[in-house]
Amino acid sequence: MDVKDFVVSLKEKGFELLSGINGLEKPLTSINMMENPDTLKWIKSGEFLLTTGYFMKDDEELQLNFIRELSKIGAAGIGIKKNRYILELSDRVLEEAKALSLPIIEIPYEFSLSDVSSMFYKELYERQSKKLRRSFDIHEQFMNIVINGGGIKELTEELGDIINNPVLITDEHGKIISNKNFLNHEYYIKDLFINVNNEYMLKNDFINEYCNNDEFPKEAIKYTDEINGEEVSFRIKPIVSDKEVYGYIIVAETNRKMIELDYIAVERALIIIMLERMKQKAIDEAKHFMRRDFFDELIEGKIRSENEIESLGNMYGLNSLYNYSCMIIEISDANNIPNVYLEISIMRQMREETIKMIEDKSSKKNIKTISIIRGAYIITFIPTKISEDSKESREFTVEFGKVIKEEFLKRYNGYNIRIGIGKAYKIINISKSFKEAMEANKIIKKMKNREVVVHFDDFVIYHLLNSSGNTEALKDFYNNSIKKLVEYDIENNTNLVETLEKYFICKGNMSEAAKALYIHRNTLLYRLDKIKEILNTNLENGEENLELQLGIHIMRLLSFDNKEPV
């Protein structure tokens, strides 16, 4: 307790505070009694001294020196027996005690010093007992929530009600799990929180400032800032077990300053929340490992039993009545992330949010996609009806990929996305679709200023050409078909190869080709004339045109594989 608590408990018994009112907030740890000034050697900081004053009666200077020494030691205060040896303290002594903020109380004549000591320890015992009972009550409140099936959300609500202040719970990465009245955005001050895609996270950099020798802080961190012209203190308490952090409890003292019982409530809540986090983490990890192992073996083609695939597939959401296309999403190029740990955390969160977005978009299309995270990739399995032909399946999955790409780029500025899609297969052969999607994704990386949603079939000609394995023959074909046009583009900084490619893609339709190239029709005519001159062709011979198209494909293939600097 502090001196004020002790004085208040004695007031009704006739004890009077004579001086030192400004020192009432001092902590009071124990009681000591003395009748000899030599006893000062054994007085400790925080002790309240009781005396009859015999050794300093009728000596004002000794009284002044005595209270000065007590103040230096850090004593909590002094109680002097009334009308025993000192009838009255002088104004000088009382003024000195006031200046030193050293409380002096007058002990009524009918009470002995041991009576006062007993009163203190009785009051302390009752306070500790009350605190202990309240602590048990709070613990029981929290335990009842868990026993009745509640979780961290309900625990947060209860804690907020008990301490009458906004409460926020985050996981170990700073992501918010639950909150109670922590809705005012002004509470999310920039020194403590970072806004990531319109969601707030506790700053890891702030926590790291309080870490010593790579050990996380185990005590509460106090941070004070000004909100709406008023000073507000934030208490950040790590949820720590041994050396593992499971999250943080953050309290904003906006309604009132926290008292001792509030800290007890936070400690009790912390223990229960930590156990809940440990339990949930263990469950999630077990489920994650089982699910991950199944999908790892599935996409690597290690499961050969159709019965096993059907039973495990049904458990994890795959339906044997459908074929599945594998869609691989890679997110990259985060900008302005100052902290590597934070970047990893943000990317992890972004992948999880992207999976939720995929699930939302797929439900609107009345399909049930399954998504997993594997390293830097999101792998999504898109169901298609077995009755659908390959063209229908391809068009559907590519369109779905474009929906995901557009929504992603809308949500996240400063990030790139690549989506490779494989063909649709039965579940037992889904590893083929995975390899095709990976191959499509690799090709996207080597392309510049081209589509970022690509199906494996878009490059079937490259796979066919590449399957020959005769690189020299491909180079010869390229040299005899399109090389002159490539060299002309390089020397004159033109883009005739792209013009010719768009012309073929638009099947010779001049208007469509001009529109695709964002140029005037007359400009296109001029470029085509130049192409005809360089390649010595009229672009009307079907066989010659096929050779030129194959030459462009070979140029791309050689460039992808870095077999020729073209």
UniProtKB/TrEMBL annotation:
Start and end residues of each Purine catabolism PurC-like domain: 14-121
Residue stretches making up the PucR C-terminal helix-turn-helix domain: 496-553
UniProt-listed InterPro entries: CdaR-like_regulators, CdaR_GGDEF, GAF-like_dom_sf, Homeodomain-like_sf, PucR_C-HTH_dom, PucR_C-HTH_sf, PucR_dom
Top-level lineage group: Bacteria
Domain CdaR GGDEF-like: 304-440
Family: Belongs to the CdaR family.
Protein's UniProt name: PucR family transcriptional regulator
